[in-house]
Amino acid sequence: MDNNAIRQLLEPAVEDMGYELVMVETTGSPSGGQLLRAYIDAPGGILLEDCEQVSRQVSAILDVEDPIKGEYTLEVSSPGVDRPLIKPEHFQRFQGSQVKVLMRETHLGRRRFTGLLIEAAPEFAVVEVDGEAYELAYRTMERANLVGLD
């Protein structure tokens, strides 16, 4: 089962608990042990107790549905200062923030765009890099994150 399918399986329960399921990722291999990481968020931020509560609920769902082959470890955490941007709604919420976008393929001569998120439309985001605006389609992004300010 891929990360999208796992997300669809877990998202309703996590949202019913009052949290947003930001992203699900798996690392490792079925033979060598895998890590399933779920990032959650809430308007007031995330505490350790929130992660523990969601972890118990998600574990119960995973035990019943068994979507992952082999042994795995579940980790639930907050998205942190370098929060991933996955859905168009995430981009809309963080307009005016510094972002880093990695495209799957070269776009206008580059793959990496780090700058100000000036617009978030339904199909694309506009990122201003060194005074120039770039329209970047969500479907062609490999990864996008907020840029954490130290």
Strand-helix topology:
Layout lengths: L2 H14 L3 E10 L3 E9 L6 H18 L6 E6 L10 H6 L4 E10 L2 E11 L3 E6 L2 E6 L3 E6 L4
Parallel strand pairs: 2-3
Antiparallel strand pairs: 1-2, 4-5, 4-8, 5-6, 6-7
Q: What is the fold named in CATH at topology level of the largest domain?
A: GMP Synthetase, Chain A, domain 3
Assembly annotation: single chain
Order of helices and strands: HEEHEHEEEEE
Uncertain runs are none
Shape: globular
Count of helix runs: 3
Give me the count of strands: 8
Beta-sheet strand percentage? 35-45%
Overall average pLDDT: 92
The total tally of domains equals: 2
Major β-sheet annotation: 5 strands, antiparallel
What class do helices, strands and sheet pairing give? Answer: alpha+beta
CATH superfamily descriptor of the largest domain: RimP-like superfamily, N-terminal
Give me the CATH architecture of the largest domain, please.
2-Layer Sandwich
